[in-house]
Design goal:
Order of helices and strands: EHEHEHEHHEEEHEHEHHHEEEHEHHH
Strand order of the largest sheet: 1-2-3-4-7-8-9-13
Number of helices: 14
Distance between the termini: 39 Å
CATH topology: TIM Barrel
CATH class: Alpha Beta
Shape: globular
Number of domains: 1
CATH superfamily: Luciferase-like domain
Number of strands: 13
Strand content: 15-25%
Length: about 375
């Protein structure tokens, strides 16, 4: 299977330095030197599309702009790039969410993917008026996706669950195509939801042995559920340069700009997180800057000031390509990437790593036909 790549839209702001914030932190607005206005986000979206990223993940939470509204605007500013829209079940009814997805598909020509975020932080969920605990939220996600899947298949749905209660729900028009559902989570409850409902299971960037164990776990859960296992994806940052020395110098520059007091404050907040995935991210560095290369070319420095995905692939283009091949051999077929700043780093990766993977037969540009690729490779002669 060919590897697929997605980029990231920093709808909280961007910078030439690491931007903090994210789920589980005390920072509600991350900010950055570059405001997350439509002009800048359009630059990133168009560049990602041109370079060969298939979609762009847009986060959800109080610390960033709304993903549905932002990407609906950006769909008019791009042509073929898909949008991996993160949203939280329970903050909107499943019938309305299914309808929104159908509308989005019609008006964008089928460019919607959905990232379902159950929500691991009680205080953040409560700010939105959601007072269920973590176990109950996963129960609700299960019921929510059951309704959405049935509506998308054309059924008329009545469900009286523990948390979702709909009567005689139906869609006037089914989304075409039905958007793939992406989902991540490291708890037992998350694994069961993934096995029952999702198309792509996402993990944050852990070392290869931990990722292999996660893949095996989800495959086992899918077998118990009597379902074909989902595809597997990984969420990583990247710092890739022409040489390894240049890449690690950039990582050191980002690290040297971090204030120890800020690191301590963010780590204190993240240590109270109810997310098992966040706990695993923290265990990679334990708040220390002493040993951040936790696996060859896997750097945990981002997680010092950012909740959620906290690791980056760091190295030469050849080394980063080799690490991607290593994860792919384990079963990872989709990579959701980002870098600081997101505009420039997209070009470092797109022009440095993707050509290597293309030559090795692991990747092809999703928006270019074989004919156009051949034509582009023919040198101009007068």
């Amino acid at each position: 299977m060919m590897v697929r790549f997605h980029w990231f839209l920093p709808t909280y702001g961007d910078s030439r330095y690491l931007v903090g914030g994210g789920h589980g932190t005390a920072i509600t607005a991350a900010g950055g030197d570059r405001p997350a206005d439509i002009g800048y986000l359009t630059q990133i979206a168009r560049s990602a599309e041109q370079l060969g990223f298939e979609a762009a993940l847009t986060p959800t939470g109080a610390w960033c702009e709304d993903a549905w509204l932002t990407t609906a605007i950006l769909a008019r500013e791009s042509e073929r790039l898909k949008f991996l829209v993160a949203f939280r079940p329970g903050l909107v009814s499943p019938t309305l969410a299914a309808q929104m997805a159908a509308t989005y598909q019609r008006h964008t020509g089928g460019r919607l993917l959905l990232n379902v975020v159950t929500g691991g932080e009680d205080h953040e969920q409560q700010a939105y008026g959601d007072h269920l605990d973590k176990r109950q939220r996963y129960e609700r996600t299960d019921e929510f996706l059951t309704v959405v899947r049935r509506l998308w298949s054309g059924e008329r749905v009545t469900l009286a669950g523990k948390h979702i209660h709909v009567i005689d729900a139906a869609l006037d028009r089914i989304p075409h195509p039905v958007p793939d559902i992406y989902f991540g989570g490291s708890s037992t409850a998350a694994g069961r939801v993934a096995a029952r409902h999702v198309d792509v299971y996402l993990t944050w960037g852990e070392p290869p042995d931990a990722v292999a164990a996660k893949i095996a776990w989800i495959r086992e859960e899918a077998a118990v559920a009597g379902r074909t296992p989902p595809r597997f994806g990984i969420r990583l940052h990247v710092i890739t340069r022409d040489t390894a020395a240049q890449a690690w110098a950039e990582a050191e520059r980002l690290l040297s700009a971090l204030d120890p007091a800020t690191i301590a404050a963010v780590q204190a907040g993240l240590s109270r997180s109810g997310s098992e995935g966040q706990r695993r991210m923290l265990a990679l560095h334990n708040g220390s800057t002493a040993a951040l290369e936790v696996s060859p070319n896997l750097w945990a420095g981002v997680g010092l000031v950012r909740g959620g995905a906290g690791t980056a692939l760091v190295g030469s283009h050849t080394e980063v390509a080799a690490r991607i091949e290593e994860y792919h051999a384990l079963g990872i077929d989709e990579f959701v990437l980002s870098g600081h700043p997101h505009l420039e780093e997209a070009y470092w990766f797109g022009e440095g790593v993707l050509p290597i993977l293309h030559r090795e037969g692991l990747w092809q540009h999703p928006f270019k036909t074989a004919e156009s690729s051949v034509a582009a490779a023919i040198p101009f002669t007068s």
